């Protein structure tokens, strides 16, 4: 089976999990009940044998023909796909209603638009990432309001059960549940798949029309809060919707992406599980949300952070589960061949145990932004203040240590320049907060620490001969994270060292005008990042460059790059982590919060120029 392009997928979700729907009407990825739960459809990382749900005109199903057109319904996560056939036109509407206290549910509504179209649904349910074939049978259930049909299809394996409700007649063949039916103009057929712990009673039968209205109303009300009014509003709003979709509503945790092991290099081994909450990603997401009017999401994340870290700031992890879980052991799923043969397929993430000192700076910066935005009460016993003091106490004692850095290298630890810059950010924001509010704390000592870090970075992380900062102390390699130096205020944008760094990145790290994170293979010292193979250009870093170009007085150049980056989005406005310049394809986990956040930030910056 030829794999579907990553950019050919659409995202739908209910703020607790998400599904990827291909252009041909196949749902190839869905984890239930949470983002990080085992997948019930894992065809994305394997074959049809590992689970899918394909719904399309019958003549198109065997050949996997794409829809004639698709779109989101307004500013929502309601996906509409239409097929034109010789017999007529049909529309499939896919969505996952915000579940509140209900069971998670994937709803698929088929509407006849023109003529008479034969439809086919093929549902292959596989639990535990495609490994477990469930027992599928029919059971009596509450009658459908319109037809009175009492039969439901249920699949059970271990702790999981899936319930299929539809007016269409179903039958089993080849360990797959099928439904064949015909729709005429104005006719509607609904199919809904609900998850429930297998030991509980059957979930209520979904009312598809009611759920559709509620979902549309939810998104209309949410997007109406957006305060951005610039020329790229469509791109910004779609990115905000994507970030909202990646937010776990019950806890406030924000996952980096809803997928695992989509490769950074096709056929390679750089395949990671991104279904967790990175403090760095979540902190910059908080900033983007606050700058565009979304205070409630930012408040929920702050509360999540306080719960996750609790009283153990000295053992701060770089990532957690969506409810703050600490144990994220990494393992491999040997039975899955991987996306386009990209092995291994991994779940969990061993980087959770790394030391990444920059995270402290990003978290403190996010807390500072929240406080200056009026997000939290500025009182002496505020739990945010207590957390910030603990983070600074730890950082004060450990900032001189080498670490794995922002890119989570699996090679030796180094004194990464970006990590030290973010140490400066943590000290700077803390000093400013204590001074501004007159709160207790060693302001003089931490002001001295801030100045010491600044001097050291400028002395050891800067190559005067080339007029550029470098990836780590004493190295010659560049790193795209250096583009953040003016954005966090470490140096002013007009400082010659900033301009020199931006221009050095353009010379040495750009490919087809887009930015790589760093040289993945380093000759001579053998440092590299500890992994074989390569990767695509990194979209977040490319947005950082567009942002910096505006900061250093070259906004027209920044806008041109920004427009080129927007053109890499798929037809629905979604971005993966990276772009393969040779194959002209998106690569990496999808959609990626770390790509959509700097899109928003760059749009906000470029709007001013």
Number of helices, where a helix is a run of at least 4 consecutive DSSP H or I residues: 13
Percent range for β-strand residues? 15-25%
The gyration radius over C-alpha positions equals 25 Å
* Structural class by helix and strand composition: alpha+beta
**Strand segment tally:** 26
Distance between the termini: 48 Å
Instruction: Kindly provide the name of the CATH class of the largest domain.
Output: Mainly Alpha
Known CATH architecture of the largest domain: Alpha/alpha barrel
CATH topology of the largest domain: Glycosyltransferase
Poorly predicted runs: 142-148, 522-527
The main sheet comes to:
15 strands, antiparallel
Helix content: 25-40%
Instruction: Give the overall shape, derived from the CA principal axes.
Output: globular
Counted up, domains total 2
Provide mean pLDDT, rounded: 92
If you had to describe this structure to a student in words, what would you say it looks like?
The protein is of the alpha+beta class. The protein folds into 2 domains: 6-221, Beta-galactosidase, Chain A, domain 5 (Distorted Sandwich); 225-606, Alpha/alpha barrel (Glycosyltransferase), CATH 1.50.10.10. The chain contains 13 helices and 26 strands. α3 runs antiparallel to α13 (593-606), α4 (279-291) runs antiparallel to α5 (295-309) and α11 runs parallel beside α13. The longest helix has 21 residues, at 417-437.
């Amino acid at each position: 089976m030829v794999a579907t392009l990553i950019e050919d997928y659409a995202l739908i979700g209910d703020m607790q999990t998400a599904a990827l729907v291909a252009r041909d009407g196949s749902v190839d990825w869905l984890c239930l009940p949470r983002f990080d739960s085992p997948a019930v459809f894992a065809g994305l990382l394997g074959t049809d044998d590992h689970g899918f749900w394909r719904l399309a005109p019958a003549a198109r199903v065997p050949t996997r023909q794409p829809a004639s057109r698709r779109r989101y319904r307004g500013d929502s996560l309601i996906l509409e796909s239409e097929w034109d056939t010789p017999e007529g036109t049909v529309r499939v509407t896919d969505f996952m209603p915000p579940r509140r206290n209900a069971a998670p549910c994937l709803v698929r509504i088929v509407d006849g638009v023109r003529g008479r179209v034969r439809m086919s649904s093929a549902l292959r349910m596989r639990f535990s990432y495609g490994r477990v074939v469930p027992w599928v049978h029919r059971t009596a259930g509450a009658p459908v309001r319109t037809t009175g049909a009492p039969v439901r299809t249920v699949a059970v394996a271990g702790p999981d059960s899936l319930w299929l409700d539809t007016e269409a007649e179903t039958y089993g063949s080849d360990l797959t549940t099928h439904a064949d039916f015909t729709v005429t103009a104005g006719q509607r057929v609904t199919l809904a798949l609900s998850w429930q712990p297998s030991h509980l009673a059957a979930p209520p039968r979904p009312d598809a029309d009611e759920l559709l209205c509620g979902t549309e109303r939810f998104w209309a009300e949410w997007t109406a809060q957006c305060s951005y009014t610039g020329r790229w509003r469509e791109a910004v709003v779609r990115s905000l919707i994507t970030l909202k979709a990646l937010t776990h509503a019950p806890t406030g945790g924000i996952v980096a992406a809803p997928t695992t092991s989509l490769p950074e290099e096709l056929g390679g081994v750089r395949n990671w599980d991104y279904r967790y909450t990175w403090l760095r990603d979540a902190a910059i997401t908080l900033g983007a949300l606050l700058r565009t009017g979304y205070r409630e999401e930012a408040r929920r994340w702050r509360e999540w952070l306080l719960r996750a870290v609790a009283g153990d700031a000295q053992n701060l992890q770089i990532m957690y589960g969506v409810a703050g879980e600490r144990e994220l052991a990494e393992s491999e799923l040997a039975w899955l061949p991987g996306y386009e043969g990209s092995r291994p397929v991994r779940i969990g993430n061993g980087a959770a145990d790394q030391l990444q000192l920059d995270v402290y700076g990003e978290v403190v910066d996010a807390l500072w932004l929240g406080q200056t935005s009026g997000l939290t009460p500025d009182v002496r016993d505020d739990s945010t203040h207590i957390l910030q003091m603990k983070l600074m106490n730890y950082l004060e004692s450990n900032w001189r240590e080498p670490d794995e850095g922002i890119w989570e290298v699996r090679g030796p630890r180094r004194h990464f320049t970006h990590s030290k810059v973010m140490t400066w950010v943590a000290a700077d924001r803390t000093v400013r907060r204590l001074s501004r509010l007159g709160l207790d704390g060693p302001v003089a000592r931490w002001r001295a620490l801030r100045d010491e870090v600044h001097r050291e970075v400028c002395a050891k992380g800067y190559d005067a001969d080339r007029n550029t900062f470098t990836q780590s102390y004493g190295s010659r390699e560049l790193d795209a994270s250096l583009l953040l130096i003016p954005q966090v205020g470490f140096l002013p944008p007009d400082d010659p060292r900033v301009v020199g760094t931006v221009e050095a990145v353009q010379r040495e790290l750009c490919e087809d005008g887009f930015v790589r994170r760093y040289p993945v293979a380093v000759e001579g010292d053998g440092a590299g990042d500890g992994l074989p193979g390569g990767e695509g250009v990194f979209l977040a870093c490319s947005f950082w460059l567009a942002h910096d170009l505006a900061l250093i007085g070259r906004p027209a150049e920044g806008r041109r790059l920004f427009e080129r980056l927007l053109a890499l989005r798929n037809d629905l406005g979604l971005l993966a982590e990276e772009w393969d310049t040779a194959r002209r394809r998106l690569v990496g986990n999808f959609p990626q919060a770390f790509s959509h956040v700097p899109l928003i930030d760059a749009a906000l910056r470029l709007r001013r120029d």
